[in-house]
Amino acid sequence: MRVRSTASMRSRARTRSLRAMSLTIRPIEPRDLHDIRAELHAHWHSHEIWSLGRCHQADALPGCVAEVNGAFAGCVTLNLDSGAWQCEVITLSCRGVAPGIGSALLAAAEDFARAHGCRRIYLTTTNDNTHAIRFYQRRGWHFAALHKGIVDRVRALKPDLPLLGFDGIQIRDEIEFERWLDSGARATQ
Ligand SMILES: CC(C)(COP(=O)(O)OP(=O)(O)OC[C@H]1O[C@@H](n2cnc3c(N)ncnc32)[C@H](O)[C@@H]1OP(=O)(O)O)[C@@H](O)C(=O)NCCC(=O)NCCS
């Protein structure tokens, strides 16, 4: 008897679900503003996103939108550092309407960085976000740094930043993840 591995069954299920759902990833356009603001407010309660002590107007950044059967299903926003040698993922989120959207948006962010000639792409997530910490490592990203206490310092200036995050964990630190990109640029947009 031929026993199919769990991994192969999972991969078949992935292919089936991707075929059924018609996922599109495309660059952010002005018409997406309303959906992007709603998405940012749903996950971060603001479109002003703090990372590494810098505040980003995330609704004005470039990035990509995911659509499932034509409906908004998530987005990634990106900031090219000065000189464009590296690119930061400022936000990544999806609505969980189907599996694989977060992975597709992260791959699109890497393609965006390559297309702009970046050598490195990086992001931070807060210490409470254990799902994201797992998610990035599963997708080949590496720990780059621990920014201990950085959220506490920003909160001293912005007291409206929430104190408790996922699972009631106190939000204190940012964990930086990175991925070094191949030198050959692979433009997708
Ligand atoms: C972090 C976040 C974007 C991850 O998205 P996600 O929807 O969990 O990501 P995916 O669906 O791509 O992957 C999750 C699982 O789905 C499954 N999956 C991935 N691609 C798939 C596909 N094409 N078909 C079927 N299943 C798939 C996998 O089992 C995967 O698990 P794995 O990590 O063990 O491989 C999402 O949880 C989110 O929006 N969180 C809130 C905002 C946030 O915290 N963002 C990160 C901080 S910046």
Secondary structural class: alpha+beta
State the distance separating the first and last CA atoms.
47 Å
* Parts with pLDDT < 50 across at least 5 consecutive residues: 1-9, 184-189
Residue-averaged pLDDT? 90
Q: CATH homologous superfamily? A: Gcn5-related N-acetyltransferase (GNAT)
CA gyration radius, whole angstroms: 17 Å
Bound molecules: coenzyme A
CATH class: Alpha Beta
Written overview of the protein:
The protein has 189 residues and is α+β, with helices and mostly antiparallel strands. It has one domain (6-180): 3-Layer(aba) Sandwich (Aminopeptidase). The protein is 32% helix and 31% strand. It has five helices and nine strands; from the N terminus they run αβαβββββαβαβαβ. The strands form two sheets. It has a seven-stranded mixed beta sheet with strand order 1-4-5-6-7-9-8, sandwiched between helices. It has a two-stranded antiparallel sheet with strand order 2-3. Strand 2 (48-51) and strand 3 form a beta hairpin. It is globular, with a radius of gyration of 17 Å. The site of coenzyme A (COA) has 20 residues, from helix 1, strand 6, helix 3 and helix 4. The site of coenzyme A has 20 residues, from helix 1, strand 6, helix 3 and helix 4.
List keywords for this structure.
189 residues, alpha+beta, Aminopeptidase, 7-stranded mixed β-sheet, two-stranded antiparallel ribbon, 31% strand, binds coenzyme A
Brief digest:
This protein has 189 residues and is of the alpha+beta class. It has helices at residues 6-21, 33-44, 101-115, 130-138, 150-157, and strands at residues 23-27, 48-51, 54-57, 63-68, 71-80, 86-94, 120-126, 142-147, 174-180.
